[in-house]
Amino acid sequence: QVQLQQWGAGLLQPSETLSLTCAVFHESFNTYYWSWIRQPPGEGLEWIGKIGRGASANYKPSLESRVTISVDTSKNQFSLKLNSVTAADTAVYYCARGGGITTSSFDYWGQGTLVTVSS
Amino acid sequence: QSALTQPAFVSGSPGQSITISCTGTSSDVGSYQLVSWYQQHPGKAPKVMIFEVNKRPSGVSNRFSGSKSGNTASLTISGLQAEDEADYYCCSYEGGSTFVFGTGTKVTVL
Question: Which residues does chain B have within 8 Å of residue A60's beta carbon, measured at their own beta carbons?
């Protein structure tokens, strides 16, 4: 069974950097893509970006200038950084397995982290 | 790169069948067999119900089925049950190694 456990700061001030990490408990870490997805309160899901083999990352174009997804294969972890946050970045952030071409769907998810941006 | 379009609300009585549409463009839904569907209950993480247009993951009821025609994908729930009441989202690969979700549909079991 694949398990994802995520953590990070839940309250940020405007202009700060959001930082979240997701640990994967499964031997499949090096053979899949791993994504970050967010959901503003009462709204829909938004794909943020993904990282996969060789640490190559891809991002939603409208967020690309502020987002960095990185991976630490020695710890089976991947991370999200989103800089210059505003209230519009307030959301539940999920890490998930998926985002490749052969494994495009998101089949395992973290528990979600509510990140609130407020002064 | 706009969100895929879904109806905001769909409802049905127990035992009935309902269909949720997901309309994209020739750059996403219309070009790839990489549409997936997710069920989300309040306060929970989404759960994949359909992947690659019409494939069901192990453990998902065969009451859920998917299809695609042109730029529109569809999720059909047959034999509607109270536990199917949830939000549903479609998702499509849109090229350039990126993905886009649908606007979401709230399913109500009357």
Answer: 1, 98
